[in-house]
Structures are given as C-alpha cells and as structure tokens.
C-alpha cells in the first residue's frame, strides 16, 4: 500500500475535534423563515417539507431561472443576479444579504452550489444564520479528499491504496502512479459529482488524463489539486445515509446502491443494496457512523464506499449534505430527511434511535437528464413541451411543462422514484413510469433509463460501476421502424374529430373508384412520407403494410402483420396531439411527427468532423496547426454544463487550423477545426 501523507491536512483534520466544544451550550431555536440557497428540484423538495411544518420559505434565483416553479412556489423570492452561477448562486455575499433582507433565520443549501463550501457555512455563522448542515470544519476536512482519507485511516475506516501528498506536482504524481499501479483513478481533492475525475488504464494515458482532470477541477472548484487511488474495475458503489445531532447521537438509515453510473455520475440508485447479507449491512452501517463520529458530525451526511466482490469495502468520500438520491431512503424508512435536518438544526435530538429506524420493502430512483445518451451524453437545452408526468410515481422535478432548461446549470430535469414490496416490484413500477412519461422538446435519457432498467443484468442485480462498459448494447438506441411510426401517426389523425378548418381533414373520406381511403402526408425523423389508409391496409410511399390499430385515453396500440417495409411487430405507447405536430412516446423515447409538412429545400449542413456538438466554452487545443494526428488523438476540448467534452480525430489526418481559441464561447454547430482526412 502506498501511503504518502502530507502533515498539513492531518493537523487540520484534528482541529475538527474542537468543534464539539462550541456546542456545549446548545440553544433551541424554532425556525420560522428559511432561505433556500439553491434552485430547481431540491428547492421545491425543501419547500414541500417547510409547508408541512408551517415554515415560511424564501427562494433565490438567477435571471435565467426567474420563471421556474421553485420561484413562484416559495413565500418570497429574491433575484441574485445574472445567469452565470458565480454571479448568482455562488455569490456568498448576495445570498447572505438576501437572508438578512427577508428575515430568514436559517439557510438550507440543498446539494451542489454552496452546500459543501466552508466559506459559506462560516459566513452564515458570522451573520447569525443557522446553516442547515455540519460545521465548517467538518465540511473542510471531508471536502478535502486527501485529508478525509487520512482521517479515516486514523479511525480504522478502510481506505483504498493511493497517493494523497499535499501539493504534489505532475512529475511526482506520475512517479507515484507507477507505484499505485494501473488502472488507477485521478480524483480532484476538492471534487465531487464526478468532476475532476479520470480513470487511467495505462501509463501512456496518464499525462493527458492528469491535465484534463486538473483543468476540470480548477474550473469546477477553483482548486486543481488531485490525488490518486487504486481503481477497482468490478466494485460496487454502496453508500450509507448517516445522521447526527448536537447531543452526541449518531445513527444510520441503511444503505443505497448507486453502482449504475456513467462518467462517475450516478444515474440509477436503489435502497437497500441488493445481495448484501445482514452481517455486511451491519458492518457498513457501523463504519459509516464511525466516520461521522470521527469528525463530530452534525446533520445529514452520506458515507460512500467501494464494495469489492469478496465483500471487502473501502471508504471513498463523505458528502456533507443531503444527497440527490435521498428519496429512496425516505421511501424504505418512511422518514422525511429534510424534516430531520431542520430538527437537528433547531438543536433538537434525532427523531429516532438506531433501533427505532425500520426498513420496509425496496425503492428505486432514476435521474432524468436533458442530454442525448446516443451522442456521448451531450447536454441538451430547450423548452419542455409537451411534458406530462406519469401517475403512481414520486416525481421530484425542477421543471413543469413550458419551462426552459438552460445550458448554465446541471442538466437534471427530475427524479422518478418508485417503492415496492421488493426490488422487482419497485423496478417494474419504475419501468412502467418511464413508459407513461411524455416529454418532448429536448433530448433526454428516458429511453436509455428504460433500457437499462429492463435489461437482464440490471433486473438480476448484476451490478458494478462498469455495468455500461460491460454491456455496451445498453448504450444503443432502440430502433423503431419509421413506417410503423408513420402508420400509427396517420391512424391517430384519422380518428380526430373533423373540424372543417383543416383542408387536409377534407381528405378524410375521399373515394377513388368507390373505395374509402385517407391520405396523410407527414414527416417522421426527417423523412417525408405519404401514408394512405384503407380499413386495415396502409401504404407508405406506395408500399403496402397491413396493420391493426387501437387508441384510447391517450394510449395507442399498433400491430403490424409484416410486409416489405416492416416485419411482424407490435408498437404500444402514448401520444400528445398538438395539431400540426403529433408526439408519440414509446418505451421512454419521444418521436415528433409533423403533419402535412411543407417541402424543404436541400442545403449543405456538413461542416466536417469538428463542429461543436453543443454550446460551450473552448478550454484546450491539444495540437498545433499543421500537425498530423492519428485516429483517436485528442484535438480540442470544450466545456458545457460544467463537464469537459474532448473531440478526437475520427481518422488519420492533418489539422490545418483552428477557428477558435481557448476561452472562446461557441454555439452548437460551429466549425471549430479545419481538418483534412488522410487519403489511403
């Protein structure tokens, strides 16, 4: 085991033990007005609990978020400034001023933004505001991944072999990497949420990965320090929800499995973790509580572990805040964790002892993101229209129909959560919920989530953090034949009541040679088609296609009897009729069908291999004009929604020039690089 430790963090970590002395005289406070220093889904979640407890809420927002639901649902709201987070949600002075101006006694940071910012926690304390979270020292130690590793090691909580020397330069890190061994993980010391994190499989990839991790960490956290850890390719990500009060009580509320990830970011979470025996479950809970006690923790926290196939587990980090995935814990325990947070912040004892906390059934959650899973998960922005949330599912959403997802913040739209008597029932209910979700207007990951949840590996709980790497087919889109979509759309048009205002409706009964037929011109996935329906026979662009069709209550079912265009198949889903556009929703995927499309002139939309896949900022040029590059080489990197995206050469060729430079803002479709493919 490599164990190079820097003394500054060890000394600092021990300072946190002094924090309990400040709590010797605990004063009870009834919070009547609470400011929520966050936005979207988590702000609305906090507002719900505050309403139940009779607590007045204050929302803050940026100019970009002025029309979002959390702003109108709060009792009062304050605009912090322009869209960039540094000028609004991350401006500590503005948040403190808003709390003072509105008479708030307490501030809830939610997650992300300032939730794990020691300066913010300290500023709240100095301003006489209750910070709903742990003290600044606990945040500081656990926010510094190197210091946290050292403290856990001192307190007999197992940690992975690694290298966490303070202030190590690139050469020192490269040398240490050889001793740690490959594969290894580069992790931002001040990081979280998968940012500033890179898996490195071999030494020849280390320098590029290190530079990228440092840049991303610097941009996200203002700190480019990193540490190294041994990477376990088949481990599970299991975390434990802990709670502690100011009276010295500490408990856990069982564990969650968050192994299904991409880019080290969780996408599906569940509780309890499947396949754990009670002895292992108890050891995990005890280790998590020990980690919390090691820093005299107060409030809600999550201790994250890597669980090896042999049952050995290792401390990864502690998140000193409420987690995105807290609803699955709430659903298996029946507890309101935000209410617990408020009670602890008021100086009360924990609502329950460890032996009073019960576990019932299983719960599962998916994160619905504005992103395109089939284009490397590139973020998407736009207006959510249509949007109908499924019934029978807990939906924690930051947006409603007609709201706009901007490119300034994290792309999460909502969380969908289901509870069941057991894991399988929870899984089936969540699959059905995604099938009943109707969301259009942007790219999103609902169909991808549906495919993962429905897959054999996931349904059999064959979980580890590389699930998607082991099953790349889960990243492939489910292909629905365009002719089938066209027939379904045409059949729905035929069933519309005639209004007399649409000239195409007049075709709904024209009779060539005495037969009743209906002609519907439409456009599906950029294909212009003519569908003619006659009883149970359709023709698509003149090719016959037998079918059966039924619709009722916003749902449809199509059966195809097979033919030249499509094999035998069935297609079931939901639909939203917007007049000139019909939306079909199948297995989580949305399909926009334009009715009676106008002819469009052809144009050249090609710009080569290096067009900006989304709006963002250029952060690095990896080669120089005139350089010859090989397929797979990094050429240019841009940042969008706080994540870096590196464009690589698809073929051998020569970079003739760059149309942009580092720091430039670009819009989607901008030609970034002049590149000539090498001719064979």
TrEMBL record:
Do you know which SMART domains this protein is assigned to?
Biotin_carb_C (SM00878)
Q: Which reaction does it catalyse?
A: N(6)-biotinyl-L-lysyl-[protein] + hydrogencarbonate + ATP = N(6)-carboxybiotinyl-L-lysyl-[protein] + ADP + phosphate + H(+)
Q: Which InterPro entries match?
A: ATP-grasp (IPR011761), BC-like_N (IPR005481), Biotin_BS (IPR001882), Biotin_carboxylase_complex (IPR050856), Biotin_carboxylation_dom (IPR011764), Biotin_COase_C (IPR005482), Biotin_lipoyl (IPR000089), CPAse_ATP-bd (IPR005479)
User: Which cofactor names does the annotation list?
Assistant: biotin
Per the record, the pathway is:
Lipid metabolism; malonyl-CoA biosynthesis; malonyl-CoA from acetyl-CoA: step 1/1
GO MF entry, a single one: biotin carboxylase activity
| Residue ranges occupied by any ATP-grasp domain in the UniProt entry | 149-346
Q: Name one Pfam family in it.
A: Biotin_carb_C
Presence of the UniProt keyword Phosphoprotein in the record: no
Instruction: Domain (Biotin carboxylation): give its ranges.
Output: 30-473
Ranges of residues in domain Lipoyl-binding:
607-676
Which keywords label this protein? Answer: ATP-binding, Biotin, Ligase, Nucleotide-binding, Transit peptide
Tree of life domain: Bacteria
Q: What is this protein for, i.e. what is its function?
A: This protein is a component of the acetyl coenzyme A carboxylase complex; first, biotin carboxylase catalyzes the carboxylation of the carrier protein and then the transcarboxylase transfers the carboxyl group to form malonyl-CoA.
> What does the subunit section of this Swiss-Prot or TrEMBL entry state?
Acetyl-CoA carboxylase is a heterohexamer of biotin carboxyl carrier protein, biotin carboxylase and the two subunits of carboxyl transferase in a 2:2 complex.
UniProt name for this protein? Biotin carboxylase
Q: Which organism is it from?
A: Alcanivorax dieselolei (strain DSM 16502 / CGMCC 1.3690 / MCCC 1A00001 / B-5)
As recorded in Swiss-Prot or TrEMBL, the protein's gene is named: accC
């Amino acid at each position: 085991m490599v164990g190079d430790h820097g003394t500054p963090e060890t000394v600092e970590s021990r300072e946190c033990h002094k924090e309990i002395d400040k709590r010797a005289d605990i004063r009870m406070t009834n919070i009547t007005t609470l400011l929520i220093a966050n936005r979207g889904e988590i702000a609305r979640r906090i507002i719900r609990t505050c309403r139940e407890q009779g607590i007045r809420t204050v929302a803050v927002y940026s100019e970009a978020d002025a029309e979002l639901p959390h702003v109108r649902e709060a009792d009062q709201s304050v605009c912090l400034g322009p869209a960039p987070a540094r000028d609004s949600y991350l401006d500590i002075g503005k948040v403190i001023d808003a709390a003072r101006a509105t008479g708030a006694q307490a501030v809830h940071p939610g997650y992300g933004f300032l939730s794990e910012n020691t300066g913010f926690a300290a500023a709240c304390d100095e301003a006489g505001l209750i910070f709903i979270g742990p003290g600044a020292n606990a945040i500081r130690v656990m926010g510094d991944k190197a210091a946290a590793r050292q403290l856990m090691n001192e307190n007999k909580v197992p940690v992975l072999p690694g290298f966490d020397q303070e202030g190590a330069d690139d050469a020192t890190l490269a040398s240490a990497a050889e001793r740690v061994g490959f594969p290894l993980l580069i992790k931002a010391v001040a990081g979280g949420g998968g940012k500033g994190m890179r898996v490195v499989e071999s030494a020849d990839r280390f320098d590029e990965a290190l530079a990228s991790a440092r840049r991303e960490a610097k941009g996200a956290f203002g700190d480019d320090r990193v540490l190294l850890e041994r990477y376990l390719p088949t481990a599970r990500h299991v975390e434990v929800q802990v709670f502690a009060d100011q009276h010295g009580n500490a408990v856990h509320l069982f564990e969650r499995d968050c192994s299904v990830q991409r880019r080290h970011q969780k996408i599906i979470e569940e509780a309890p973790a499947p396949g754990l025996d009670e002895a292992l479950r108890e050891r995990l809970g005890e280790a998590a509580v020990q980690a919390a006690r090691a820093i005299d923790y107060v409030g809600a926290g999550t201790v994250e572990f890597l669980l090896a196939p042999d049952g050995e587990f290792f401390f990864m980090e502690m998140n000193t805040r409420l987690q995105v995935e807290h609803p699955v814990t709430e659903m298996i325990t029946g507890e309101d964790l935000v209410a617990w947070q408020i009670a602890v912040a008021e100086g009360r004892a924990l609502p329950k002892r460890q032996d009073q906390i019960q576990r019932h059934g299983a719960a599962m959650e998916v994160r619905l993101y504005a992103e395109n899973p089939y284009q490397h998960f590139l973020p998407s922005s736009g207006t959510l229209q249509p949007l109908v949330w499924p019934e029978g599912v807990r939906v924690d959403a930051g947006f409603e129909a007609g709201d706009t997802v901007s490119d300034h913040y994290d792309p999460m739209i909502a969380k969908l959560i289901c509870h069941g008597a057991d894991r399988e029932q929870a899984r089936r209910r969540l699959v059905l919920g995604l099938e009943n979700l109707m969301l259009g207007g942007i790219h999103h990951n609902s169909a991808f989530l549906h495919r993962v949840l429905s897959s054999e590996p996931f349904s059999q709980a064959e979980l580890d953090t590389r699930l998607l790497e082991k099953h790349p087919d889960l990243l492939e889109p489910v292909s629905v034949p365009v002719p089938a979509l066209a027939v379904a759309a045409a059949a729905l048009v035929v069933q519309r009541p005639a209004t007399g205002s649409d000239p195409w409706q007049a075709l709904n009964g024209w009779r060539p040679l005495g037969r009743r037929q209906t002609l519907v011109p439409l456009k599906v996935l950029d294909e212009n088609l003519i569908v003619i329906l006659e009883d149970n026979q359709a023709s698509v662009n003149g090719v016959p296609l037998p079918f059966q069709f039924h619709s009722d209550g916003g749902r449809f079912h199509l059966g195809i009897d097979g033919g030249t265009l499509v094999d035998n198949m069935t297609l079931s889903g939901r639909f939203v009729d917007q007049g000139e556009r019909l939306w079909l929703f199948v297995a989580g995927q949305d399909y926009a069908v334009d009715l009676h499309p106008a002819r469009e002139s052809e144009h050249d939309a090609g710009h080569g291999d290096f067009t900006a896949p989304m709006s963002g900022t250029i952060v690095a040029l990896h080669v120089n004009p005139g350089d010859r590059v090989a397929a797979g080489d990094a050429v240019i990197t841009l940042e969008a929604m706080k994540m870096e995206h590196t464009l690589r050469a698809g073929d051998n060729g020569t970079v003739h020039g760059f149309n942009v430079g580092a720091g430039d803002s670009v819009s989607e479709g901008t030609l970034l690089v002049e590149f000539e493919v090498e001719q064979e």
